[in-house]
Every structure is written in C-alpha cells, then in structure tokens.
Amino acid sequence: MINRLTAAALAGLLLIAAAVRADDLVPEPDSYRTENYRAPVPTTLRGARVLSTRETEAIWREKAAAFIDVLPRPPKPKNLPAGTVWREQPRLDIPGSIWLPDTGYGVLAAATEDYLKRGLAQASDGDLGRPLVFYCLQDCWMSWNAARRALTYGYRNVAWYPDGTDGWARADLPLQQTQPEPRPEE
Question: Is the torsion defined by CA of 101, 56, 146, 68 positive or negative?
C-alpha cells in the first residue's frame, strides 16, 4: 500500500514540475515588447539564431561577428540639486562591441531608429549578410527587440545572446569599459 501511495505521490509531483516548467516558458510575441523590459524572455527569435554563452564566446574569439549592445543609458536621477555633477556608471561590455544605447525599445523615435540603422550599417560595413550578435543583460527584452528589428531591416545573419553581459561575466569572460556610439546631436 505504501509503495502505491509513494508512486502516486511521485507521479503527482512530476506532473506539477512539468506544468511549472511549461508555465516558465515565455512565448515569442508577434511584435516588439513595449513595456516591462526586465522580465523573462523567450527562448526563440524567429529568423535569428539564439546563442549560449559558449557559442557567443566562440564567435567572439574567432572575430566572426559584430557585437551590438543595446542597453539603455542610465537615466539621470530626477530632482538632482542644482549644480550637482551627474556621472553615469561605466558600462562594461564584451570587448570590441559597439554600444547603441536606447535602440531596443519597442517603439523608437525616428531619430533613434536612424541612429540604430546607421550603427548597424557601420558595424556590418554595409553587408546585410555579415553576422551580428545582439545583447544587453539577462532577462532584458531590449536585445530581443533590436535583433528582431535588424531582421526587418534585411539583415540575414542575426544572432541574439539572451544572457548578455550578465552571462558573460558569470562565465568569467573579459569585459571592458565602453562609451556609446555618438549620436549626430551629441
């Protein structure tokens, strides 16, 4: 009797665990994410290759792609007293990356979209087939949005690294301090 109860309880726990795992999967949306950007992301991006840290490292070591960071610039704190000097925290990036901040939002102003298009053209040397790897932080929709947008621009070799610099740092891979690509108005 105890064996049957134990087996039934174990089967029930396995069913619950399978249901929890299925609930943890984030479905790939049909459009860009426009809110709550720091949340679990899907495991897929139609038309793009999704990379693990190991795959990303191999591509980086081979210099086989342009790396694009789209993490937004940190916002200036509101209500800073007059005369207070504001210094952004430094951004640590995968070495050799181009940082195109604020280009991963779901809706882009025309000037920001132009900035992204020019940045991608520069990173790819105008070659729509050149491999591009998009990232920001783990559980951040910004890189998913930007990689999806690059596909709509006609880039054919798009990869997305969902673990971003968080996963890179966890693997004890090198990071370097970087500055964003300048915008025309800067």
Answer: positive
> CATH topology for 2-74+90-178?
Oxidized Rhodanese; domain 1 (3.40.250)
Taking only Cα atoms into account, the Rg of the chain, rounded to an integer number of angstroms, comes to 20
Q: What is the pLDDT of residues 122-136, one digit of tens each?
A: 999 999 999 999 999
* CA–CA distance, 60 with 78 (Å, rounded to integer): 38
* Phi, psi for residue 50 in degrees, rounded to 5: -95, 125
The CA distance from 186 to 174, in Å, is 29
* 92: three-class secondary structure by DSSP: strand
What gap in Å lies between CA 88 and CA 127, rounded to an integer? 33
Q: How far apart are CA 88 and CA 74, in angstroms?
A: 7
Residues near 29 by beta carbon (within 8 Å), at least 6 away in sequence: 42
Return the bridge partners of 42, or none: none
Identify whether the C-beta of residue 154 lies closer than 8 Å to the C-beta of residue 128.
yes
Q: Is residue 2 scored above 70 in pLDDT?
A: no
| Local structure of 100: helix, strand or coil | coil
| pTM of the shown model | 0.84
Distance from the Cα of residue 125 to its chain's centroid:
22
- Contact of 41 with 24, CB cutoff 8 Å: no
For 136, the 3-state DSSP assignment is coil
